[in-house]
Amino acid sequence: MDSKYDHSNISIVTSLEDSRVDLYRSVRDADLRGRRHLCMVESEMVVRRLLDSSWKVHSLFLSPQKYERLAPYIKNPLLDVYVADVSLMSSISGFHIHRGTLALVHRPDDASLGLHKIMQSLESKDMFSLLLAEGITNVDNMGALFRNAAAFGVDAIVLDRTCCDPLYRKAIRVSMGHALSVPWAVVDDWATALSELKDNFGVKLIGCETGNKSKPMWEVDPSQKWALILGEEKSGLSAHTISLCDELAEIPMTPRVPSINVAVASAVGLYDFLGRRDFDNG
Fold first, then answer.
1. Of 39-43, 97-101, 176-180, 229-233, which range is least confident?
2. CA–CA separation, 51 vs 57, rounded Å?
3. Which of 79, 104, 108, 136 could hold 112 in an S-S bridge, CB 3.0 to 4.6 Å?
4. Are strands 57-62 and 101-106 parallel, antiparallel or unpaired?
5. What is the spatial order of strands in the sheet that 156-160 belongs to?
6. What is the separation of C-alpha 196 from the centre of its chain, rounded to a whole number of angstroms?
7. Beta strand pairing call for 204-208 and 247-250
8. How far apart are CA 233 and CA 228, in angstroms?
9. Under the phi-then-psi rule, with left for phi > 0, alpha for psi from -120 to 50, and beta for the rest, what region is 39?
10. DSSP the chain
11. Measured distance CA(112)–CA(133) in Å, rounded
């Protein structure tokens, strides 16, 4: 064995039947979650961010080239690292791995994803911002919401139970790893959660929606503690969510294009409420 792999935690995989990498075998996100309550992370940049985070990493599965690049970031000498040719990695996982980098991560338990856990972390702040989403089912959009939230400094994301899982492999990749860095919560009773944010935590709820009662985004004052709420990709916010909003903000556009992608809308809204204030280079 090459001396660079001469560590007790490094294992060379040369066989398709190697049982040590069974958790990486024929991966589907839903199956993986049930196997060991894990999620999968891919791409070198995202795994670097993962290794620098507080998330509990189960193991790494790397090509020889990626192991050489990531070795300086692997601080835990007990972390299991499996090294194999990219073509073998692809055969084992069941999908094409052109990046040569996979990691398995322990998912957080339900208790740590509660709304009150998020709000406890913010209770000492005079100002904070939240990004809320209901009914977001496209994993690309979900990943982009987290990337945008990180880019503009949102304090946390709150999702309703109908949203897709932010820890799907593709969602994490699209988020550039920020699904692992931006705090987030999932709530079962969406209406109750919105009411609690307003009544118990003093959060101003701003719905991103077009309509007769909507104001242009730049006319809405977000206040000190606020949440921007985005709705399902096709139909937007539900009527009940709209009824709970303190204000509705829209992004004025030409009549030929009455709406834009929810991920793009989040970027525009967050820039207007946060970016112009915090990132003004003038």
1. 97-101
2. 8
3. 108
4. antiparallel
5. 184-187, 156-160, 128-133, 225-230, 204-208, 247-250, 215-216
6. 23
7. parallel
8. 15
9. beta
10. --GGG-STTEEE---TT-GGGGGGTT--HHHHHHHHSEEEEESHHHHHHHHTSSS-EEEEEE-HHHHHHHGGG---TTSEEEE--HHHHHHHHTS--SS-EEEEEEPPPGGGGSHHHHHHHHTT-S-EEEEEESS---HHHHHHHHHHHHHHT-SEEEEETTSPPTTSHHHHHHTTTGGGTS-EEEES-HHHHHHHHHHTT-PEEEEE--STT-EEGGG----SEEEEEE-BTTTBS-HHHHHH-SEEEE----TT-----HHHHHHHHHIIIIIHHHS---
11. 19
pTM for this structure? 0.90
Strand-pairing partners, residue 242, are none
Q: What is the per-residue pLDDT across 189-233, written as a single tens digit (0 to 9) for each?
A: 999 999 999 999 999 999 999 888 899 998 998 889 999 999 988
Report the DSSP beta bridge partners of residue 68: none
How far CA 190 is from CA of 115, 187, 242, in Å, comes to 11, 6, 12
| The Cα angle at residue 155 between residues 152 and 156, in degrees rounded to 5 | 110
Distance CA 138, CA 142 (A): 6
Residue 116 has pLDDT above 80, yes or no: yes
Query: Cα–Cα distance between 92 and 238 in angstroms, integer?
Result: 42
Show the tokens assigned to 195: 């009411």
User: Cβ-count burial of 249 within 10 angstroms (0-12 exposed, 13-18 middle, 19+ buried)?
Assistant: buried
Q: Rounded to an integer, what distance in angstroms lies between the CA atom of residue 218 and that of residue 250?
A: 9
Q: In sequence order, which residues have a C-beta less than 8 Å from that of residue 43 and are 6 or more positions away?
A: 99, 101, 173
